[in-house]
């Protein structure tokens, strides 16, 4: 039995009670470095200077600094990384916010990380009957990046019944309190918040939001989770979490993929995330 398989045996109780679990050294530092290298190769291949004005146009029309290549990748950039003419104010690697959304389906290093035997051991221990990965991305927290507000992942997608959503968050750099490590509210997955729902209505995205849902949440309830490169943090889809600002001069990167258990719930048809050019639904087993 592998070391990860042994670790997976002990996580169920912790995960059910707290809504998260940490497995150090889930992947090796060399594999983490390979995922960073692959994400930068993808960025170099798909982001070209001629598309910078397209970013600005998208932002002006849609409030969205992103580019999607048909059947390929979506890149999202920090809005303050460009001037009004679409020229980068920083390097593209530091302007990047995320690159996705189906890395697990397109690129071998991410396929290997997503569908490994260790991932299967963890999911089996968490009693997932038919886990379906529907989104994967590398998230870049650039120097100077601000805090990511508290949220629950399942407020952005819906299954029927809800509750089988899960995120794998794998550190590709050491995540520290200074560079914006994850912060979680232990046990909050047991409460019903879910203030924001993004649905597709008549081929248009509709955001349904209950104002001030989190207004009584005490910041002191959040626990910082600094982890070393290669560590895994499992996050229940209902768990309240956020991340702090990056006050260092270095990037903080993570590979994330989200899934749900098809043996326990169905994907709602009016979710904005659908199988197609941008997203890919793939079974882990």
TrEMBL record:
Family the UniProt entry places it in: Belongs to the PhyH family. PHYHD1 subfamily.
Keywords from the named record: Iron, Metal-binding
GO molecular function: metal ion binding
Identification of the protein by name: Phytanoyl-CoA dioxygenase domain-containing protein 1-like protein
Source species of the chain: Leptotrombidium deliense
Origin: domain of life: Eukaryota
A Pfam family: PhyH
Named cofactor requirement(s): Fe cation
